[in-house]
Amino acid sequence: MVMAEDAKTDTSITGLRKALDPINVSQALNALSKWADIPVCAAAASALAERLADDPKLCRALNARGLSNALNALSKWPDSQVCAVAVSALAERVADDPELRKDLDPQGVSNVLNALSK
User: Fold this and answer.
1) DSSP H helix total and E strand total for the chain
2) Are 29 and 69 in contact (CB under 8 A)?
3) N or C: which end of the chain has fewer CB within 10 A?
């Protein structure tokens, strides 16, 4: 019975993660990054990073602020492979999208550069 309950919980968590729209993914990562050293927060961030890494459409849907906040948040876990893959996907978007770069405000530029320096 416990295994069935665990599977149900796992499915609902997966569903919640997939239900988040781009701004909420960015905001959730930002919130989790405030407690980067807490294992459950790191695990949740890894799950969201995996979604970013696996979903190019999600990466493209982030606006300039959302992308810079997501990069800044992901930089709190520099040793996480899945976070590094997500950072790479977002960095590719920055490199390839001149409109996105133009839309970054000074704080966004700072966030992006700081995150990519880690």
Assistant:
1) 8, 0
2) yes
3) N
